[in-house]
Amino acid sequence: MTPLEEAQAEVLAACRRAEPVSLPVGEVLGLTLAGRVDAAEAVPPFRNTAMDGFAVQGADLADASPDHPVRLKVIGTLGAGRAPSQTVGPGEALRIMTGAVFPDGADAVAVVESTRSDGDFVEIVAPARVGAHIRAAGDDIAVGQELFPAGTVLGPGHLGVLCSVGCQSVQVVPAPVVGVLSTGDELVEGGEPLQPGRIRDSNRRTLLSLLTRDGFRAVDLGIARDDEEMIETALRAGVESCDAVITSGGVSMGDFDYVKAVLDRIGRMRWMQVAIRPAKPFAFGVIGDTPVFGLPGNPVSSMVSYELLARPGLRRMGGRPDDDLHRRPLPGVIDDEGWAGSRDGRTSYVRVSTRFDDDGRLRVVSSGGQASHQLYAMAQADSLAVSPPGVDVGRGDTVAVLRLTP
Description:
Layout: H1 4-14, E1 21-24, E2 32-33, E3 37-38, E4 48-49, E5 53-56, E6 70-78, E7 92-96, E8 108-111, E9 115-118, E10 121-124, E11 134-135, E12 146-148, H2 156-164, E13 169-173, E14 177-183, E15 187-188, E16 199-200, H3 203-213, E17 217-224, H4 228-241, E18 244-248, H5 258-266, E19 268-273, E20 276-277, E21 281-287, E22 290-295, H6 299-317, E23 330-334, E24 347-356, E25 362-366, H7 375-380, E26 383-387, E27 398-403
Parallel strand pairs: 6-7, 14-17, 14-18, 15-16, 18-22, 20-24, 23-25
Antiparallel strand pairs: 1-13, 2-13, 3-12, 4-11, 5-7, 5-8, 6-10, 9-10, 19-21, 21-22, 23-27, 24-25, 24-26, 26-27
Helix pairs in contact: 1-6, 3-6, 4-5
């Protein structure tokens, strides 16, 4: 059998990072920066107030109190988006709104909660500390500051920062376009009645959904029947239009050899028996320079193969750093009767549900049946527990957990 690490290394060696492209900020959510981004503007771009109130000279309010309010003349109002035209002098106050440019002459803000308006005057009942509630220009971001290094995966906050400094576009690694092809005469689409020997195609929808969840661009290549010409046509079309192709079915020992025959003829493939349970059969190679992942047909095996083998390779193609290709294991404490380790030398990936207890420990229970065809239990799982071969585990034991949810 092929060790999982060897299979993963072969995948990663063939999955090269895509060439960077420049895209508008509105189109880069979830993509990876190809180079560092520096700030061309300061944030905030000018000195401004953080509170509604009055711009004043703090010295005027040193003795202000509810019993001895200080009375100042209001010389105007300044809202956000307007340039100040007045200088605040002793005994004066300028009504000011949050975000407005802070005027010359003033050095403090009397917050609105400490004031009482009285016609052209304002009474202030508390001191105003010099500099309080005033944002200096550039106190969040300075001109020329490095905002984000290459390899940053851009989230909503990153995009907000880019917009705040006037950045219109950035160099990113595009998300790979991945085609998904199901194969087999037994597969049926839609809700038509099942004839003897037929099953409904769930793998294609599952894989398309996994790809979309993970930020890749998924393309439905449909179903290819057990016909070499049809399979070759579908694969060539996928390779022509996609950056990678995933097939489902036809990689196990003893399967009809239509998929194997075609892939061996038009690609450079390796057919493996990976030392994991489920998802032992796995094929990987290239047609031209396009990676092709041959996943097993059993639905749980297909999903586990995707998680452990296809997903890391696709993340590399999308520019993720090497330390962010695989899911990071967390320690989890078994909270049910546990399970037996495999006796055939394979590491088991047990479908489990998890929760954090009041002490912050991750608690783990089996989500149900563990056979490779039992998709319902996989749907109930939020994680995979990594169970070494030959090691039985029970309540209270600690296992490594790969969480499949954000």
